[in-house]
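Supplementary notes for students who missed Thursday's class. We covered one full example, reproduced here. Read the sequence, then the structure, then the short commentary at the end.
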Amino acid sequence: MKRLLTIPLMLLTTACLAQNVNKTLSLKNCREMAVESSEDLQKADNDIQKAELDMKIAEMSNRPMVDGSLTGLYTKDMEIMGNELQLRGMYLAGITVQQPIYTGGQITAGKRLAKIGKECAEEMKRKTRADIIAQTDEAYYSLLAVDEKVKMLEAFQKQLQGLNDRVSVSIKAQMATKNDLLRVQAKQSEIDYQIQKAKNGRQLCRIYLCNIIGVPLDTEITLSDTAIAVTMPHDLIDDVTNRPETNLLLKAMAAGEHQIKMAKSNYLPKVGLQLGYSYHGNIWLKGMTMLPDGTPYSYKQQYKGGTPMAMLGVQIPIFHWKNEIRKVKKAELDWANAQLDYNKNTKLMEIEARQAVQNYTDSYRMVQTAVIGNQQADENLRVMRNKYDNGMATMTDLLEAQALWQQARSNLIEAQTQYKISETRYLKAIGRL
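Structure (token representation):
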């Protein structure tokens, strides 16, 4: 019995351990996983397929359409002029072919609108993909920044523990006071708090990244791209013509022009040709007649046969209370609005691109400043340790130097990760992400 209970418990434990998967991921891995698992991109693919179907529908709109029909009738006999018409099982079968000849440009405009719809769907997918990559980069580097801060704080805690040990020894040798040890311990408690706070923040960043790349939220992620290469930005541009948003605005104007043509086609003549053939059968006429010699004679005759048909139709709008003209005016106003949207949003995107250029450049300068500050803090801490060990500096001076080192290291981490985020935002702002 115990063995039977052990097996399910082992399976349950194995399943729980399998859920806490540890993944080592690079930025490239995260981008690929985010793109592959994105529901928004899957919807964008579906929209492209829908647009392709619309194109095929529009392409077939000027082809001949073939319809068939079959009608059966079963009813009681009917009396016509003394004769009996039997319709018990009468049938009528037919086939028709309709071919549009001239539609006032409506079919051509419809084809071009369908093509623009497909192009818009492709641009929307490109925009969605860029948004996902930008979100992934920001989540990745945010998690990296927190990881580096946790490592820095833990390294700082080790330094403080070493200082604690030295002070404890110095107290026994009556070369330090109890107050010095309390100040070191107070600083250790402060760093413990900061480490816990940073780890809590790391959990949130990790969960956010897990959600973006489509893995279980309890997945432990180890980042492999921890070395950040910082190079001076050059050949920066603020051109937004390659952005998907710009192309969408241009296509909205193009669609507006074809919508005007569609509206104008409503008050132009339309010509269509229809060909058909119908066949009827199982119709009987039953009655009585008189032979020449006066003898009554009953007869029953079946009617069946086919009838061809050809029809050329011309539809000419004459008077619709100016509704068609109003539709044209409405389409023209929509097109004017599309132009206004293009002018307005293009300016906003240009401002966004210039801000992205400025932020990218500033972030590089911030890294350079942070590097110098970090080097100075390293040297200052080294010198202050030597002075403290030789009795030429106080505990206050040493703790202040360590606090400056911590702040300088934190500034460098933030500057480096912000540089990479600014780089991604710049590429997105000019449509190159």
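Commentary. The first strand starts at residue 22 and ends at 25. The helical segments are 2-19, 27-37, 39-59, 106-172, 178-213, 244-264, 323-389, 395-429. If anything here is unclear, bring it to office hours.
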